[in-house]
Structure formats: structure tokens, C-alpha cells
Amino acid sequence: MDYPPGTMNAMNGMPPPRRPNDPNRSSPNYANQYSSADYRIRQMGSPPNDYRPAPYAAMNIMNQQTHPTPFRPSPTAQRPSGVAVLIPGPSPSHSFRNPSLPLPSRPPTHSTQRSTSTPTPVPRPIASAHPVPQSYPIDYQLLLLSLAEDYLATAHGQAFDANFKDRENSLQLYYKLVAAGLACLEAVLKRFKLQPQMEANLRLRYASVLYEETENMMEAEQCLSDGIKLCDRYRFFDLKYNMEHLLAQVLFKGSPRASLKFLDGVIKDAEAYQHAAWLYALRFLKVSLLLQLQSHQDTLSAFTQLRSISARADQASDKAVLAVASVLEALVHLRQSSSAETIEQAQRAIALARSLQHGSVTGQLAQLAVLTNILDLSCSLQQFDPVQSVIKMQAMQASLESPLDGWSADGSFLVAVSSQNASQTSNGNGVVRKDSKGLPSILFSWAPWTDVYALGYLLSSLSIAHRNTSDGLRSEQMLKEGIRYLD
Question: What is the tens place of the pLDDT at every residue in 37-49?
Fold first, then answer.
């Protein structure tokens, strides 16, 4: 095939001519291989977003491709012979021109010719240089739950200033954070359709925050009542017991007798189903509620519950539970009266607790050992025995100086029960849970170690108060040190 002078076939793989000295061109060019059109590129060094190749001859049948990929023709591949597009080329007469002189401009000449060869293959379109990022739907349920936990964690972890001048602002910030967390939890409960187990957990969480942080006991009671019905429907025994445990405390704020009556029914159900771990937890809860009433009849009822716990724990070989019940029994005796008989009964219960604290499970409870020494020292102080008071004071101080690795920030600790009760225990954060060894354990709440240290300084000061002058005011120094821990 013959072409006019100064032209060349675009199908021979040769690049289009360059005109480096053209003064009208201020930016580099990007030449399409299938047409004579030139696309100017911005000085930023990348092609514009609206860059498109020149139209192809067979563009009408390209709609059948669903996943286009960039077309990169090989320089050595056979070019299609269906359409020949001619673009300007260097003239033979200017092969040895001075490169500093500009090339003469010549309009492009186009010629087409039919070919009898195979049909022209359809090139693939070029993909966009800037793909649009995929957008994912927002999970508002997960977002609200995350925000609620962040708000509550920030409120509880906020380092409030101890200065009274900033106390009001710190409290206002604390109230706002708790209110925001409760609003997020309430929105998820009312606006989303949740899975039954997730809804039960969320109701328990929402009611616990209402009980601990607010005075909205009616809302907490209604939330727990609906949650207990849900747990009955789907047989979530562990969540049901947690809700009933919390509901008894909620009812106690408004009507103590109604709370105790409700708790009696729950204890009967746990005893009927032989859920021993929850039976311990519910009876211990009833003891703590009875001790808040401070009447003689309620104190006798507390003794009855503690003896029931001790009998069952002794039968099931739950040594740790038996030790806790003995220590609490000594505490109730000391609260009841300061007579010699009650002090003797308290010392008998303390002796039983000490005999059980040498086991592998009971010996790891630092809180139980400290509480036992505190009660033992209190018995000697009520007996007005200075010699025994000093000896027991030293034992108490030795237990306080021991490593406090297992002492949590809020003073809570776990008491393990026998492994036969593990089937009714979940891995959650309820009252009855599994510890690090997989054993079912009961969560007890006590004082933080700073408050226990302050109490230890107070009892130590009372133990050596009779010789304060001879000891160089040591008793007063201990009182000042205890006040410093409270500050």
C-alpha cells in the first residue's frame, strides 16, 4: 500500500513525531496511538481526570463487557488491518535538518481502506485513573453501643481534681458523660430489633447503670422485669439470675420487705434447680440486705442464712465459701453486741476461718486474710486487752504489707466454688462467673485498699493509745497517716 509523502501508517508501531521546539506548546503531550488527537497533561505530572481515548471503530459492540480492564497493546503485536489511520510523519527531505529549527506543520491526512482479513478485535477500554472508593453502610447499632461504653468508661476513668474549686465542674462533666452513655443504650433498646441474648445482656447493662448512677429505680425495675420475661422465654438461666440479683437490690431501695420476699422466691427456685453457685450468691445477698435493716429479728435471720451457707459449703467441700461465711458470722457477732458471750462466739468463728485459710484456694484470698486479722484485733480491743491488741496489731500490719497483686481497684474479689457447678456459669461479667482457671466463682465487693489501709491505721492507733506519751505520740502520728490516705 502506498501512502503520500510525509505520512506513515499508524499500525506499524512507530511513535508519532515530536516537536520539542514548538513555542505554542507549554506542557508535555500524551498521544493516543489510534488517532491524531493529542491530550495535554497538567503540569502536576498526571493525566486529567476527564482523560478519555479517541473513539474506536468498533465501540458500539463494547457494551457486552461487564468488567473492563486497561488495554495495553504490544509494540510487536500484529496491528488490526480493518482501519488505517494516518498521522503526520517526518519527511525524507528533512531527515538531516538542524534539530534546533522548528519542523514545518502539516495537517494530518487520513485514508481508510477495506480489508478482507479477519474481523478487527475489539480493544478493551482504559480504566479510570482515580477509582471511586467503595462506601459501606453504617452500623448505627454498633456505633451507639461503642459510644455508650466510651462515654461510661471516660466518666469512670476521669481524673477529677480533689480541689473544691474545680469539683463542681468535674461533677457536671461526669453527669453529662453518664447521661450520654445512658441515652445511647436506651436508643439501641427502643429503635433496633436485637437478638434475644444480646437484648438480655443490654437490658442488664442498662439497668445496672441506672441503679449505680441514677435514682430512676422505676425505669430500672421495668427494664429488669422485661428482661426476666425474655430470659424465661429463651431459658437464659445465668442472665435471669443476674437480673433477679440486681432487681432485689433495686426493690430494696423502695421497699425492703418486698425485696426480701422476692429474694426468698428466687432462692427457692435456685435450690429446686440445684444451682449451688447461685444459691450461695443469693443467700449472701440476703445477708447483706438484712444487715442494713439493723433490727434484732433481721440479725437473727442473717445468722440463719449464714448457717445454711456453711452447712451446704461443708457438705460440698467448698472451703473458700465456708471461710467467707465464718468471717461474716464473726462480723455479725461483733455488730450485735460487745458482751463477752458474743465476743467469744466471734472468736470461735474466726478460728474456724483461720483453719480454712491454709488451703490452695483459700490461701490466695488476701482480702479474706486481712479481714480476719482486722476482726481478731477488734475482739481484743473490745476485751480491753492491751497486750493481745499489740500482738494482733502486728499480725494485721504484716498482712497489709504483703503483696497486693490480687487486690482490684474497687476492692472486689472472687471466691471459687466446686467445679460441679460450672454448668450454670457463663464466661461473662456477672455475679457468678468463671475465673482464670475455669472454676465457677462468686464476685464479692469490699473496700478499696486505700480505705483498708486507713482502717488499719485507725485500729493500730487505738491499740497503742494507752502508751501514746511514752512512745513519742506514735498513736497520733498513725491517725494523721490514716487521714492522709482518706484525702
Answer: 333 333 444 444 4
With CA atoms as reference, report the closest residue to 269 among 289, 243, 297, 301. Answer: 243
Task: Specify the residue for cell string 471503530.
Answer: 57
Structure pTM? Answer: 0.71
Residue 180, φ and ψ in degrees, nearest 5:
-65, -40
How confident is the model over 428-454, as a mean pLDDT? 87
d(CA 75, CA 472): 102
pLDDT tens digits, residue range 465-486? 988 888 888 999 999 999 998 8
Question: How is 396-414 classified by DSSP, letter by letter?
Answer: HHHHHSS--TT--TT--EE
Residue 138: Cβ-neighbour burial (10 angstroms; 0-12, 13-18, 19+): exposed
CA dihedral sign, ordered 51, 56, 61, 66: negative
Could you tell me if 393 and 374 are in contact, meaning their C-beta atoms sit under 8 angstroms apart?
no
Per-residue pLDDT reduced to its tens digit, 325-375: 999 999 999 998 889 999 999 999 999 999 987 765 566 788 899 999 999
d(CA 188, CA 205): 12
What is the C-alpha radius of gyration for the chain, rounded to an integer number of angstroms?
42
